[in-house]
Amino acid sequence: MANPSPTASPMRSRMTGLLLAGGRGTRMGGADKGLQPLAGEPLALHVVRRIAEQVGPLLISANRHLIDYARLGAPFDARVVQDATRDFPGPLAGLLAGLRAASTEFVLCVPCDTPALPADLAVRLLAALDANEADAAVAATVDAIGQVSLHPVVALVRATLADDLAAYLDAGERKVRTWYARHKHVEVPFADERAFYNANSLHDLADLERTLDAPRRARQLD
């Protein structure tokens, strides 16, 4: 199903979704992480579906297999963008490409390996950003003992920060949290840690496969 027009919702029309799929896939032996199969479909496709109903336009940041990502994003009217340089400088370079390409007020960036993201991710990040008059809202989770874990590449970022981010990268900086610290940002807590589980390795991907397959196996046993 194609991504509905961003004019369908005033809230959604403020945000462009950005799937970050431009990494080296080092911990997957150099494989393109977003194109690895999960439940018979590319991992990135699961993530696109999670955010397509939450935002207006969609972008996919990729540096390899551009035709494959364009085909993956076509049903959602997603456009593929690339880093300005080809040396894989990290997620901030993908975010910069998204900020440059976006025509909306904000960009919601998510990694290509988090297929269970919350259905209310965008609305909660936007509400927190607006309430705090911030430049960025970053997702976090809190465990049973109150330990906070930040998920820095799951964030809603003001598009006007593009020039500042470009200068930061030009200076050789790469750390995501350090860049956020330059701006007013807010951490937004989510209760479900599993929603932010990411598949960094083939082992992680196999764990995700088992998790998704468990309900099917349970139904077969009924």
From TrEMBL:
The N-terminal domain determines nucleotide recognition and specific binding, while the C-terminal domain determines the specific binding to the target protein. Residues 17-185 form the MobA-like NTP transferase domain. One of its GO terms (biological process) is bis(molybdopterin guanine dinucleotide)molybdenum biosynthetic process. It catalyses: Mo-molybdopterin + GTP + H(+) = Mo-molybdopterin guanine dinucleotide + diphosphate. It holds the Pfam family NTP_transf_3. PANTHER family: MOLYBDENUM COFACTOR GUANYLYLTRANSFERASE (PTHR19136). GTP binds at residues 20-22, 33, 83, 113. It comes from Trinickia dinghuensis. Its cofactor is Mg(2+). Monomer. Its EC number is 2.7.7.77. This is Molybdenum cofactor guanylyltransferase. Transfers a GMP moiety from GTP to Mo-molybdopterin (Mo-MPT) cofactor (Moco or molybdenum cofactor) to form Mo-molybdopterin guanine dinucleotide (Mo-MGD) cofactor. Mg(2+) binds at residue 113. It is found in: Cytoplasm. Belongs to the MobA family. Keywords: Cytoplasm, GTP-binding, Magnesium, Metal-binding, Molybdenum cofactor biosynthesis, Nucleotide-binding, Nucleotidyltransferase, Transferase. Its main location: cytoplasm. InterPro entries: MobA-like_NTP_Trfase, Molybde_CF_guanTrfase, Nucleotide-diphossugar_trans. GO terms for cellular component: cytoplasm.
